[in-house]
Please model this.
Amino acid sequence: MSSQNPESKQSPDPKTLDDPEREQPSEEDPNEGSEEEDPNEGSEEEEEEEGECGFCLFMKAGGCKESFIGWENCIREAEEHKQDIVEKCFEATSALKKCMEAHADYYEPILRAEKKAEEEAVKELEKEKEEDSKDLEKK
Model:
């Protein structure tokens, strides 16, 4: 019986080692194949999505996809025409922010990071004001 145990243990081990190795590439290959098939349907959109940053993919995966795309298009257009982004895209930015707040459960990490950045900016401004007033007092 002890001779059967090592044999039964040895036989499945190489097979199980081979099977997962074969499954992993086969899992990746179908994904790549499906990505190649999708561009035929909407090639411009799919090519754009393949090269998108993680942030953009995250933003589009939530409930504010349309608002984000509108904001993104506004930014792109302002840059192309060398316009003031803040002025041109104020409405698109406001709409996106309101949407993100309405979907705070999903966008919470972004909202939290934005709030922290705002707090840091306020601290920096206050620090600069203090330094400026000290400089004026010295003169």
Q: What stands out?
A: Residues 2-48 have pLDDT under 50 and may be disordered.
